């Protein structure tokens, strides 16, 4: 749908395009059109948005900027009463290009974003806050990086630093995968030795190789929660339980770690964490550490 706009002569600003109720200032598109384009831009590339919406790709960026400006009328209010905040960096392009993001856990809103990562970048956030706002921060969650703790000690020493559940579970997954690779190497070595030294039938040899393959190809299965497993994946977990106790225990540790963060009761979570630490202690320190 197309609609003409009128040009008027303003005694102050000269010849300008008159305001219309269905579009933003300096925009040739309706509110709804820009809203759809911005929603797509959050989930697709600019090229995809441009092709689908039949617009130029360099038009998408200004649309996003106009919507962001409308949504953030008073930017300073984003920093009002920060109590629980979270910080994380993420790569957004190839070549190790990062942005650092700060969120307000109480509101769930992103309150600050900057290119780069590290202490010098995170310091820019605190320098925008007043001493009162820095003093109101009670908790800062992150990925455990040292530069986050350095900034906390310098700018809000009364705040507690903690690691967010996402990274804790990610570390648990990395430890589980380390155990899986170790279990696969051991199973492969034992199977090869048994094949070379014993007179096995063809079916016995195939069964032995199948058991080794089940460990090697179990990464996706071990990463899933039990309620999300397919029937085939459940059978693979049962086979691991029967043939590799160490790997199955590591899988159980990952799952119990996930359940700790899903608990709504602090005392229950503390008891579960204590049990988890006792259960994890026999594993090598390079896999699961307290």
UniProtKB/TrEMBL annotation:
It holds the Pfam family DDE_Tnp_ISL3. Residues 85-281 form the Transposase IS204/IS1001/IS1096/IS1165 DDE domain. InterPro entries: Transpos_ISL3, Transposase_DDE, Transposase_HTH. Residues 20-64 form the Transposase IS204/IS1001/IS1096/IS1165 helix-turn-helix domain. PANTHER family: TRANSPOSASE FOR INSERTION SEQUENCE ELEMENT IS1557. This is Transposase. It comes from Ligilactobacillus ruminis ATCC 25644.
């Amino acid at each position: 749908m197309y609609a003409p706009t009128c040009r008027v002569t303003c005694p102050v600003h000269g010849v300008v395009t008159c305001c219309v109720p269905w579009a933003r200032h300096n925009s040739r598109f309706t509110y709804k059109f820009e809203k759809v384009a911005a929603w797509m831009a959050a989930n697709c590339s600019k090229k995809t948005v441009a092709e689908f919406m039949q617009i130029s790709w360099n038009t998408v960026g200004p649309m996003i900027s106009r919507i962001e400006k409308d949504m953030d009328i008073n930017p300073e209010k984003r920093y009002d009463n920060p109590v629980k905040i979270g910080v994380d960096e993420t790569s957004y392009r190839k070549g190790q290009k990062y942005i650092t993001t700060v969120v307000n856990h109480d509101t769930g809103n992103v309150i600050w974003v900057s290119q780069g990562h590290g202490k010098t970048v995170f310091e820019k956030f605190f320098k925008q806050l007043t001493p009162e706002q820095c003093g109101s921060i009670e908790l800062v969650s992150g990925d455990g990086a040292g530069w986050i703790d350095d900034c906390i000690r310098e700018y809000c020493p009364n705040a507690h630093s903690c690691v967010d559940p996402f990274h804790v579970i990610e570390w648990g997954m990395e430890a589980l995968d380390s155990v899986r690779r170790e279990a696969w190497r051991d199973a492969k070595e034992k199977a090869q030795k048994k094949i070379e030294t014993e007179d096995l039938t063809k079916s016995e040899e195939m069964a032995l190789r199948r058991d080794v393959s089940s460990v090697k190809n179990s990464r996706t299965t071990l990463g899933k929660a039990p309620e999300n497993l397919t029937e085939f994946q459940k059978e693979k977990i049962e086979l691991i339980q029967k043939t590799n106790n160490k790997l199955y225990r590591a899988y159980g540790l990952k799952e119990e770690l996930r359940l700790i963060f899903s608990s709504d009761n602090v005392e229950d979570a503390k008891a579960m964490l204590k049990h988890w630490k006792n259960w994890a202690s026999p594993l090598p320190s390079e896999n699961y550490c307290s």
